[in-house]
Amino acid sequence: MKHALEFHKDIRQKPAEPGDEWAEFEATGTARAFCSCGFDTGTVATADAVRLGREHHHALKTPAPRE
Ligand SMILES: [Zn+2]
Question: How many domains does the chain have?
Fold first, then answer.
């Protein structure tokens, strides 16, 4: 089984203010970690997604994904 863990932080676009020349994004506080093996945390608090993703990879002795 090949493992390719991905980690996605959820972001949302900040409300634009008059004069803004580009969109700004901010973290929503939730994230999701999922792996090609079927492991999937679903959308959970960012800290939980990071912890669960690391635990998955720790068990596999492979490098943890970057946050
Ligand atoms: Zn996996």
Answer: 1
- Do 43 and 31 touch, CB atoms closer than 8 A? yes
Ligand 1 center to 45 CA (angstroms): 20
The verdict on residue 65 lying in a domain is: no
The pair of three-digit structure tokens given for residue 30, joined into one six-digit string? 């939730």
Measure 12 CA to ligand 1 centroid, in angstroms.
Answer: 27
- Tell me how far the alpha carbon of residue 60 lies from the centroid of ligand 1, in angstroms: 8
pTM: 0.69
Over residues 36-65, the pLDDT tens digits come to: 999 999 999 999 999 999 899 877 665 555
20 Cα–ligand 1 center, Å: 41
Domain assignment of residue 35, yes or no: yes
